[in-house]
Design goal:
Elements: H1 48-58, E1 64-68, H2 72-80, H3 88-99, E2 108-113, H4 115-118, H5 128-134, E3 138-142, E4 147-149, E5 157-159, H6 165-175, E6 179-186, H7 194-213, E7 217-224, H8 232-252, E8 261-262, H9 279-293, E9 300-303, H10 310-320, E10 328-333, H11 335-345, H12 352-370
Parallel strand pairs: 1-2, 1-10, 2-3, 3-6, 6-7, 7-8, 8-9, 9-10
Antiparallel strand pairs: 4-5
């Protein structure tokens, strides 16, 4: 289906903008109309205090999230890039390399795992969740079931996985997970349509409420894809519309803002735009969007890298931390933490130590960026290579 121009989220498409909240009876007067508002406390069951504490722990100074929640198929593509077969033993070996890196907890506060990894152990029999706890890293879990076509849209997608989410989340909590991740996407070249934006926002809100009800801090992630040749101003416009809808529905679903984390895209030009933006420009536009749309009650903004090079992602994060922010502005990177690690490892046991050192180098760089103290001096050529993939999927 061909993409069409952006459908503006106006009063017709967003019922809370420019319209009355309640229907008026025909013929009744509005001059002296009064409305009784019942105040309902925002609650997250018995887990509220724990959720707030978990979110604060993840959003701790100088630390961020390591995202290793790729599906088995996507992990297989990464293994194939170094000549390894996609099987459980090889996936376990790679994730063991990452999760047993000595000293990782100095820079990493949380790790998002795929379901297979959550239940795995090292070759010595130690549970991966215990490896993380020993480093004071909070285990997390990807809970969505992936993207599928959204009927009636402009060739867009929606994220599935709400069915059975409550029971799955309860089991993940028992296994040791304490936060969750749900990724949906918005495509600027496809509009985005008002339908796709609403579907993304509603799905994220329902997921967040279900997660909190089962003790998991939800990471809220409507990824605005880098695909396209649009300018940075267009990305800002779309990002503001998306996040306004997300927070409207989060509030409607009684989600506790102090017990969530966000995983937004940085506000950048489209990957195919003729002019690249500097880290300072990206920081300016991204922080403008956040200040306009994100309540200060939210403890942590953990950015995704979205196909930027390792160095770009770190430089942009550093630029955003040159002045104080109402939130902990940090990272939740996958490829931007793992690219050099994977190429250093090459699947060889004798390279494990070198690969773990490479992970610590990238983790430390982003830790410094979270503190606003990063310098790109001495970065390798590998760290400068872009990783954008059009229509990227997990």
């Amino acid at each position: 289906m061909a993409c069409v121009s952006f459908a503006k989220l106006n009063a017709a498409s967003s019922p809370w903008i420019g319209q009355q909240s309640f229907a008026q009876r025909p013929g009744s007067s509005t001059r002296f109309a009064t409305r009784r508002v019942s105040v309902v406390p925002i609650r997250a069951s018995a887990y509220t205090d724990e959720l707030v504490q978990t979110a604060k722990s993840i959003a701790s100074p100088g630390r961020g999230i390591l995202a290793i929640d790729e599906s088995n198929a996507t992990c297989g593509k990464r293994l194939a890039s170094i000549g390894l077969e996609n099987n459980e033993a090889n996936r376990q070996a790679y994730r063991q390399l990452l999760l047993t890196t000595p000293g990782l907890g100095e820079y990493i506060s949380g790790a998002i795992l795929f379901e297979e990894t959550l239940y795995q152990s090292t070759t010595d029999g130690k549970k991966f969740v215990d490896c993380l706890r020993d480093e004071k890293i909070v285990p997390g879990i990807k809970v969505d079931k992936g993207l599928v076509p959204l009927p009636g849209s402009n060739n867009e997608s929606w994220c599935q996985g709400l069915d059975g989410l409550a029971s799955r989340s309860a089991e993940y909590y028992k296994q040791g997970a304490r936060f969750a991740k749900w990724r949906t996407v918005v495509s600027i070249p496809c509009g985005p349509s008002a339908l796709a934006v609403k579907e993304a926002a509603w799905g994220l809100a329902r997921y967040a409420a279900i997660s909190q009800d089962n003790g998991l801090v939800p990471i809220v992630e409507p990824e605005i894809l880098l695909d396209g040749d649009h300018p940075i101003e267009r990305t800002l416009e779309v990002a503001e519309k998306v996040w306004s809808e997300v927070f409207f529905y989060l509030a409607q679903n009684n989600v506790v803002f102090e017990g969530i984390l966000l995983k937004p895209s940085m506000v950048t030009p489209g990957a195919e735009h003729k002019e690249k933006a500097s880290p300072e420009t990206i920081a300016k536009y991204t922080l403008t969007m956040l200040r306009r749309r994100v309540p200060p009650a939210v403890p942590g903004i953990m950015f995704l890298s979205g196909g930027q090079s390792e160095m770009e992602a770190t430089l942009n994060l550093n630029a955003m931390n040159q002045s104080p922010n109402p939130w902990h502005v940090s990272f939740s990177y996958a490829r931007a933490l793992q690219n050099t690690v994977l190429k250093t490892w090459q699947g060889r046991p004798e390279n494990i130590e070198a690969a773990q050192k490479a992970l610590l180098v990238r983790a430390k760089a982003n830790s410094l960026a979270q503190l606003g103290k990063y310098s790109a001096e001495g970065e390798s050529d590998e760290a400068k290579k872009g990783m954008f993939a059009k229509g990227y999927t997990y």
